[in-house]
């Protein structure tokens, strides 16, 4: 059976490795960090939103983005770069900001979300849900604008429509915010979990898998190609530089995938959207959310993960800069204290930022490249945890030549 190297030890790379090992391939995972799941998978929002998958690109978003860019606490912050990739991505993003395109992409992502939900269900046998604080929490999207709320509530199959009083009664953590709300939409079947813990548990299960060849820790510098095939990966670990070779290669390394693909002339339409998260311990007398909550206008996500509150928000378009912007952090902290003042011990906040590798359409890229033995599982943006299992299943099927469960238009590099 073929030997495969999966490049990337985050949630997408690890699920890819698992599905490929289950398919009978001999699999090695290359990860640059000492521990798996320590990049964009580490402090993400923790929401598994299989049915709340609306792409960022939509009609009206460009005008909103212009307003947000001048607000320290707004959902979006933009800093121009001397990098043409930023402007190419923005131009493509603007081209996707049409209602008809958004509807088509949303339909495709809903199919991927359902496949991912089924995949996570399959993993329960191997990866116990309580090992990574998985909860079937349901999802409540709250709205502050009456017009925006009524438009969302009017969509077919939107979910349960809740008044502000319903929101506060059924989710008491929102009691302080009730006067500020126009209403909410609730859907059951959505979950929350600790993505980093999931990565650690899945890595342990991989180590015990008979087809798994192990983890290699080092920095992938470049891919090597000859006559239409990838022949190896140049890997550095300190002063030690070597070439790893396999029959096939899977790029699942987040935003690093863009740079590695460039080394063999494959252009990936990815851009790093930096997001922030806050984590605070929940005390016995705190009123933390039991339901997964999304503040629609502010684009802030709240999730109870175990005994901690996780809050995720914001998009900073500042290149591959992982530094914490104090104004952004302070603004987010103020919003959280205002919305859920009694949800956690905010005096013990920890702050994290990660780079979410996004495509202009918000749809991931899964499948083949022009190199016969180079495969992709990239571009999941903020929904890497949500889509990981479904994407891995599609990738393994494609590599085995199987017919996909649904058409993959919009999810491939050629689309």
UniProtKB/TrEMBL annotation:
The protein's name in its UniProt record: D-amino-acid dehydrogenase
Record's keyword terms, sorted: Oxidoreductase
Domain spans labelled FAD dependent oxidoreductase: 4-396
Source species of the chain: Massilia yuzhufengensis
InterPro entries membership: FAD-dep_OxRdtase, FAD/NAD-bd_sf
UniProt GO molecular function: D-amino-acid dehydrogenase activity
UniProt keyword Oxidoreductase present: yes
One CC-aspect GO term: cytoplasm
